[in-house]
Each structure stands twice: as C-alpha cells, then as structure tokens.
Amino acid sequence: MKNESTPINSEQIRQSLSFGASAVVQEIVVKAVTDSTNADAANASSDCGVFIADMQTAGRGRRGRQWISPAGANIYLSIRWCTPASAASFAGLSLAVGVAIAEALVGLGAEHLALKWPNDIVLRSGEKLGGILIEVAGEMAGPATVIVGVGLNYEMPESYAAQIGQPYANLKAHMLREHNRNRIAAELINSIVSVLAHYEEQQFAPYVEGWQRFDVLAGKPVVVHLPQGSESGIARGVSAMGELMVENRGVCKHFAGGEVTVRSEPDAC
After folding, report:
1. Is the dihedral angle over the CA atoms 175, 178, 180, 183 positive or is it negative?
2. Catalytic pick among 14, 128, 183, 253
3. Cis peptide before 266 (omega within 30 of 0)
4. Residues 100 and 227 in one domain
5. Considering 65, 124, 220, 263, which one is annotated as catalytic?
6. Domain CATH for 72
7. Are residues 243 and 141 located together in one domain of the fold?
8. One of 14, 31, 62, 213 is an active-site residue; which one?
9. Domain range holding 227?
10. Any idea what the CATH number is for the domain that residue 242 is in?
C-alpha cells in the first residue's frame, strides 16, 4: 500500500522551530534520498546545520549496523554542531539527547515511552521506536564537531520487519494527538539544540533524574556484553557520567560501553 505521509519540508520545519533553535540553526537541508544524514552533516561547512532525508540508502545504527530507512515512512535527521570545546566534553551525550527527545515526544502526546541504555528510544514493553548515533571529531583540547543522528520509526511498513530483525513499534500508533513528520522533526531539533547549547558546561548530571523517569532497564536482571566477556547483575540506573550501573552480590560496577540484554530469569545478585 502506498505511504501517504506528509512530505518532509524544510520551510514547514523552520516555521515550527523554537526561538532558540531558529537563532542558531543556519541551514535545514532536506533530501529525497541520501546515503546517510550523518555523512551529510559530516561533509557540511555550517557551524550548526540540520540534515534530513526522506530515505537513506546506507543509514547507520550503533556499531556500524544498518538502519533500515525506507521512503515516506520515518524520520531520519542529523544535527551538526561545531564548538570550541573538547571532544571529551560530550561523554554521555547520547543519554542526554535521549531524555530530551523522550520529553519532547511526550509533550506532543506520545504514550508508553522509555529509554534503553545507551541510545535506544523504546516502548515500556521493549519494542524499539528509534535510536541515536553520536559522532564526535576534533582535537583533544578542542575544537570539536559533534554530529547527533536520530532515526525514529513513525510509520514503518510491516514489510520491513524481517530486515529489522527485532521487535519494533511505530510512533504514530502511540500518539494521543497525531502530528506529521515535519512537526515532530521540528520538536526533535528544538530539544537536541537545547541540549547541545548547554552540554559542554553542564555535562550529563542534570539529565540523570530525567533518565530515571524513562529508564526501561532499572531494577531488571541484565547482561552487559563486552569484548572481553560479559557481566551480569541488576541494573541500577546510570551515574552522573552516563555510565550504566549494574549490581551483583552487593558490588555495583559502572559500564561506559557494551551491549545490554535483559535476562528472563535473574541469578542470585
């Protein structure tokens, strides 16, 4: 069946930007098809630009995985942010962006939203709605270029389920009020730009409480898969640095990276 979603339109998005975002976003580039919006952002020259596509042919998820990006269905956008700050200043940024996106979507009427460490937007029941891909380039002492990529399922056709290979959900089906992709994209831009404008000074600590409200892993038995093996325990939220905290037999370990899965049956932890 043909998808009848409202076409992505840069002027409609611009009209819905907040005063703060409108003041700093120098360009909004919309393409019908691109390989990757993160690549478009990396190759741009603006200090703050937004790059959106209706379809990606080489969309990327975390750890180089393919991000399924059919036309006319979802939201694929990247924001380029140039700063004199060091690349190290942006540790934990994906979590802060996740909190801001979740709060923005709830404000638009989304229900049952949650976040899965470190960069997934999900439903409380676990199905994936979207993901965040952060890429930072620059000198150790600065300056740095930060690219925030967001892929969000708005109305993903069921015909792509086999390619996705994991449970997923569509935002449109979980909205109390329907908004088209341009309105949603504008709110994502507003929320992400607000995070970027303050992050190098505030870091992740102000977002810990917000993360706790949406944390889908908190209190659950999890396994953290690392290159050198795996660690299991009970997820205990995140630290002020954005690290996942996992408790096992009274000892709480902090993890800055890794893949997390939820165990169906807890061990003695």
Report:
1. negative
2. 128
3. no
4. no
5. 263
6. 3.30.930.10
7. no
8. 62
9. 217-262
10. 2.30.30.100
